[in-house]
Design goal:
2 domains, 10 helices, transmembrane helix, Glycosyl transferase, membrane, Glyco_trans_2-like
């Protein structure tokens, strides 16, 4: 345990769990820097965390889980950053598993089992997101939304401006790291039930947000992975429509022409976007 590590814990109204969590981390890893970002809590989260031995950063109002992670990462002084939840679901003993994978890997993520998901609906949704993200990243994504991870500071700060202020920051960080050519490893972890209340993630609202973030990251780092399927679908619909109208009336309709042209235009837009993406990436790494 000779690594310089900062543990970042976003917390919102977690006075019941934050104290024991910080004390446990401090007892197991006495040399680690512990930062608790109090995200505008209305209870005594800030005071409890400070008394337990953490550096506390206070937001003046509730800004979101992702905003708290960004605040903590900007303030962190160590080369390895560990993020985890404040609700008691993550076992501090697993931090060593994650940190041990660095520096061989740029980021190590705690992979939850099926039993570690909050509900069956969440498990099914996460499976679909993992499959879509795997297609986008060309890498087997095993747990896209896990917030328990260790990452090299330089890799995290490089992508910090992309982080949303909401719960979706793990999705953004995972895809951005993979599409930027950094290495990633998954390590199985145990997850306990929440010690305080229900999850703040809503299946429909946040699920739609996760999907849009996947598409956004894909268009930022690999646009053709989005444009080619959509272009191909439009072209295929044009072929189907043309075959239908030809068989029933030997005609080539305006709809077929529109679908064919849309497919070609989308393909060319994808090519241009890919070139812009490549130039942007090369410029940012000079």
């Amino acid at each position: 345990m000779n690594h310089a590590v900062t543990v970042i814990i976003p917390a919102y109204n977690e006075e019941e769990t934050i104290g024991p969590l910080v004390q446990r981390i401090r007892s197991v890893y006495p040399s680690y820097e512990i930062i608790v970002v109090n995200d505008g809590s209305t209870d005594n989260t800030s005071q409890v965390a400070s008394k337990a031995g953490a550096m506390v950063l206070d937001h003046p109002y509730n800004m979101g889980n992702g905003a708290s992670i960004k605040t903590g990462m900007r303030k962190a002084s160590c080369d390895i950053l560990v993020t985890m939840d404040a609700d008691g679901q993550h076992d501090p003993a697993d931090i060593e598993k994650l940190v041990s994978g660095i520096p061989e890997y740029d980021m190590v993520v705690g992979e939850r089992s099926l039993n570690g998901q909050a509900s069956v609906q969440r498990a099914v949704g996460n499976h679909l997101y993992n499959a879509f993200a795997s297609y986008v990243a060309k890498f087997k994504v095993k747990d896209l939304t896990s917030g328990f991870r260790a990452v090299k500071r330089e890799a995290a700060l490089e992508h910090l401006p992309l982080f949303p202020n909401t719960y979706s920051y793990p999705t953004t960080l995972t895809l951005a790291v993979l599409r930027s050519g950094y290495s990633l490893r998954y390590i199985p972890i145990g997850v306990s039930s929440r010690k305080n209340g229900k999850s703040g993630i809503h299946l429909v609202k946040d699920g739609t947000r996760f999907l849009m973030i996947i598409i956004k990251i894909c268009t930022l780092y690999s646009p053709l992975r989005v444009f080619i399927p959509v272009s191909g679908m439009m072209f295929l619909l044009g072929l189907i429509n043309y075959a239908y109208t030809y068989l029933i009336g030997a005609r080539f309709t305006n709809m077929s022409a529109v679908l064919f042209m849309s497919g070609v235009i989308l393909f060319m837009m994808g090519i241009v976007s890919e070139q812009i993406c490549q130039m942007r990436y090369e410029r940012s790494h000079k």
